[in-house]
Amino acid sequence: MTEQDYERLTDLLADQAVQELSAEEARELRALLAQYREFDAEQFERAATAIQLTEAMEHQPLPNHLRNKVLADAQAYFDIAPSIPLQPVVASNVLQFPRRSAWQWAGWYAAAACLLLALIAAWPRMKGLLQPTAPVSSLTAQRTNLSNEAKDVLQAAWAATKYPGVERVQGDVVWSSEKQQGYLRFVNLAANNPNESVYQLWIFDANQDEKYPVDGGVFSVSQSGEVIVPIQAKLNISKPTLFAVTIEKPGGVVVSKRDKLILTAKVG
């Protein structure tokens, strides 16, 4: 996931949580969620539900012992003092807040905590989604480390098919079955619009029916020059024989028609 796609996706999810999206925004959100299927949009929905429940319960009295516990937990969690006194200030020239003000603020503390916890819970998946957008130098170092550390590492060069526009593409695949880790390296692979199409890796394994190669992950290219992409195999790979890249619809497919096969890398 590119940083731009990540920011746009979180913006759309946040907007959806508090208001209705336009038809165009809804289509854009569906396309992004289809492309990045690992992203957990339900975290945002749960946070939005918590906020809505808070608003619905604003006028309902809360038992004192629960009210005090919520306020204490909120203050401890955020390490701040409430901005509104828990007891009304008795003075004729001071604006008096209704008694439920403290509970309203406690509700927003709880809602904010829910949103923060949702983001914290989603972070491991977000971090994994953002990994492909790490600087090339960083991924190059990881790729080099894998080549140096894995005893069974293999390397296979890309060969272009007759598909138009891929004649100048070069690069290779590095893979370790022991570590179940690998990287794709491309040079001169054309940038794509993820709302229209994506690249998808397929891994053929000697122990797998060649009619059903293993999905190696969906990715996009947004820059020219050298691009390195981590492999995200959906199943365990024991003896790879061929790596292939196809062009697919946004989000990828379960079984490719292989009518847009652009690159192959044969092992051995």
Give a summary of the structure in a few sentences.
With 268 residues, the protein is α+β, with helices and mostly antiparallel strands. It has helices spanning 3-18, 23-35, 42-56, 64-78, 101-130, 136-149, and strands at 154-157, 159-160, 170-176, 181-187, 198-205, 214-219, 226-230, 240-248, 261-266. Residues 80-100 and 124-134 have low confidence and may be disordered.
Write up this protein.
The protein is α+β, with helices and mostly antiparallel strands. The chain has 2 domains: 3-132, no CATH class; 134-266, no CATH class. The chain has 6 helices and 9 strands; from the N terminus they run ααααααβββββββββ. The chain has helices spanning 3-18, 23-35, 42-56, 64-78, 101-130, 136-149, and strands at residues 154-157, 159-160, 170-176, 181-187, 198-205, 214-219, 226-230, 240-248, 261-266. Strands 2-9-8-5-6 form a 5-stranded antiparallel beta sheet, with no helix packed on it. It has a 4-stranded antiparallel beta sheet with strand order 1-3-4-7, with helices on one face. Mean pLDDT is 77; it is low at 80-100 and 124-134.
Helix and strand succession? HHHHHHEEEEEEEEE
* Rg over CA atoms: 25 Å
Low-confidence stretches: 80-100, 124-134
Largest sheet features = 5 strands, antiparallel
Shape: globular
Q: Provide the number of structural domains.
A: 2
